[in-house]
Design goal:
2 copies of one chain form a homodimer. By secondary structure, chain A is an alpha/beta fold. Chain A is built from 7 helices and 9 strands. Chain A has a 9-stranded mixed sheet with strand order 1-2-3-5-4-6-7-8-9, with helices on both faces. In chain A, β2 and β3 form a beta hairpin. The radius of gyration of chain A is 17 Å and the shape is globular. Chains A and B meet through α6, β9 and α7 of A and α6, β9 and α7 of B. β9 of chain A pairs antiparallel with β9 of chain B, so a sheet runs across the interface.
């Protein structure tokens, strides 16, 4: 893990860009010394890790007392696309323009992204936990499909906040039953691209005894800011 | 409004029993001087106003900085039952024992309770707002059916937290569309006596632009304590 830039922000948070092999990432840590719990903040493929609303969430988490890390996983954000990724995205655009069903294309596209993202997140987690300022336990926040697989294979994930705003492949819908860590499941009630019933069924499927659903009126990008604060408090209950 | 007892609790909260005509009530106020926002905490007919978990919620709200008031409305808690109430409850018990549908009985029983409770809550609100230590704005917390009617007819209610744990008569399901104040709608995902889909449909029906659903795994009485804290923060966003 090599830090490539470092910036002290006005809320005292230290923001550092890093690379880990081909993986570009950002780590935000609070002013406080000493190891703090870590939150892996995964965004879906549609947004680069530098997107304003992701950075705002990460900074808020760090100001609250967590180390927050994000990466652009393979095929996501500003990472180069494979020919297969390019083809799948072209197929998706074409099907959406034509008003055709997109589930099969998404199954293949997102399934492939999950397969590649999860190992990268695990390598990143290994590297982050070697830093003296990063402790545990470890939480996960964001992209549901990657989070389900990561929580299923990675015992170091102690709690997770999922944003139910993207397609979840069949394999991860099945894996949801194996997930038993505390969950906060966040849903936009009128999310244009995500059928509400499918999200509610997924919430129902998780095996966790402590699982909470938060739903707010509005479309995909309309999540109110107080949900970021609720997320921090959720992690406070389970990581501290 | 006549105060009949007064007790300073160890968290500094002042707990006072009162009567207002035939209506018995309790008011909890914080240590701080000066008028504070008011929360009307309505419980459904199955619990008296002195039930431990209601008192714990009320005290927490008062310690947080609100005046919190509750009453036993007509036919609720320790109030005497009318012959019609007695008959409806007997019919309900019989139908439940026999495994028969109870919706018609609940429609009549709860509908009648709502009709009688709402005027009593409005009289209580008038009286509470004459106290120098009670200011505004006013929030409502608890029993959904009464809260919908109260919010529909009472412009002084500025925000409401509903617990979706009881039967909501047809008239209130219709009135839900008229409700436009900010809402927090709390649901137990596995509530034995309350069909989940019916509660989700009700959440969907409200006209409010700011409405949030919180659902937790577990049965009717399993709401986690952190929802009380989330409720206080919800009211902080809208009443202060």
């Amino acid at each position: 893990m090599r830090f490539t830039s470092e910036q002290r922000l006005d809320d005292g948070v230290l923001e550092r860009e890093f690379t880990l092999g081909e993986i570009p990432g950002t780590l935000w840590t609070p002013e406080s010394a000493g190891p703090v719990p870590l939150i892996l903040m995964a965004h879906n493929n549609g947004l680069p890790k530098g997107a304003d609303r992701l950075v705002a969430r990460a900074r808020h988490g760090a100001a609250y007392g967590y180390a927050v890390a994000t990466i652009d996983a393979a095929g996501c954000g500003d990472r180069p696309l494979s020919p297969a990724d390019e083809q799948a995205r072209a197929d998706l655009r074409r099907a959406m323009r034509a008003g055709e069903p997109v589930d099969e294309i998404l199954e293949s596209l997102v399934g492939s992204l999950v397969e590649r993202a999860v190992p990268e997140w695990r390598i990143t987690l290994d590297a982050l936990l070697t830093l003296p300022e990063v402790g545990g336990p470890v939480g996960y926040s964001g992209w549901t499909a990657v989070g389900i697989r990561l929580a299923a294979v990675e015992p170091r994930i102690a709690a997770a906040g999922f944003f139910a705003g993207g397609y979840v492949p069949h394999a991860q819908r099945e894996e949801a039953r194996q997930i038993t860590i505390p969950l906060l499941f966040l849903l936009q009630w009128d999310d244009e691209g995500n059928p509400r019933q499918r999200a509610l069924d997924l919430f129902d499927a998780f095996g966790s005894k402590a699982k909470t659903l938060h739903a707010n009126v509005g479309g995909h990008t309309g999540t109110p800011w107080f949900e970021v604060e609720d997320g921090n408090r959720f992690f406070a209950r389970h990581l501290t």
